[in-house]
What we know:
Blueprint: E1 4-8, H1 12-23, E2 27-31, H2 35-44, E3 61-63, H3 66-70, E4 75-78, H4 85-92, E5 101-104, H5 117-125, E6 132-136, H6 141-145, E7 150-155, H7 159-168, E8 174-179, H8 182-204, H9 209-230, H10 240-251, H11 256-265, H12 270-276, H13 282-296, H14 302-312, H15 317-325
Parallel strand pairs: 1-2, 1-4, 2-3, 4-5, 5-6, 7-8
Antiparallel strand pairs: 6-7
Helix pairs in contact: 4-5, 8-9, 8-10, 8-11, 8-13, 8-14, 9-10, 13-14, 14-15
Amino acid sequence: MTFxxxxxxxxxxxxxxxxxxxxxxxxxxxxxxxxxxADAINHDHENPDYLPGITLPERLRATTEPERAxxxxxxxxxxxxxxxLRDNLGAWRSALPDQAVLxxxxxxxxxxxxxxxxxxxxxVADLPDERVAVISGPNLAREIAEGQPSASVVACTDExxxxxxxxxxxxxxxxxxxxxxxxxxxxxxxxxNVIALCVGIAAGLGxxxxxxxMLMTRGLAEITRLGAALGADQHTFAGLAGLGDLVGTCSSPxxxxxxxxxxxxxxxxxxxxxxxxxxxxxxxxxxxxxxELARKHSVEMPITEVIAAVMHHGMSIAEAAMLLMSRSPKPxxxxx
Length: 336
């Protein structure tokens, strides 16, 4: 039986993941907002704005009508900006297939509620946790669309569901592992964007590998502390959805969040960077949501704190660097 998927969101990662599902043998309809993108995918087999030069499978179809994509789908893949998920999913709720599993590709935390994306999905769609899954890992969309060897984690509290989804998106170039730790897999993907902003700023300032390695490592410590407080398995953060995603995002010029930070470090103003960023850098808005979550659970996250202050409260980069480097001495491992 052919596995049918609706992918809601025709940006770079939604399009690349639609290609993965097709290459795994599935039938996929991609739903996006812009008619010209849908037409290009259907007729030219390319998404010229987000993945130019990548040939997409002929059987990957696109539409601007989400209801059409959702009809008869076995799984619904959500590839939207984190802060738009609630409203969009609410609008589509009546069209969701009765037994479909909803999969989040979104790496963010909701402002105001501090909810992870799987929690938003469960709340809005009124679904049990065994019908909600997340996929996360080092997911630089263009490399995956090019067929470069890559891997990710599919997480669901129900192991059978995770294995079924693993089969649905495993290809010769995209390897998928299962995990039941939804909290850890989601937090790794969301918080690493905040750390990548900081690493990008350091790179833009001209600092070298020692500084970047320090920030990544201490960033991973922050992610682990928050995860432990929320009930995640600490081992998850040593895997693809933790360390793997962190290294990929902090190291690659393809990373939106790292690039955003790098432009700030090079001297561009925050409004200038926002104006020149074509796709969502999730860490910018999520930094405040992550910090609120950390404070709620009394978790110390100094990198997240200064990034939220730089992005939203006018703190200078020089002051942020001073605050991080003048912190009181501590054991390397604390708060876990």
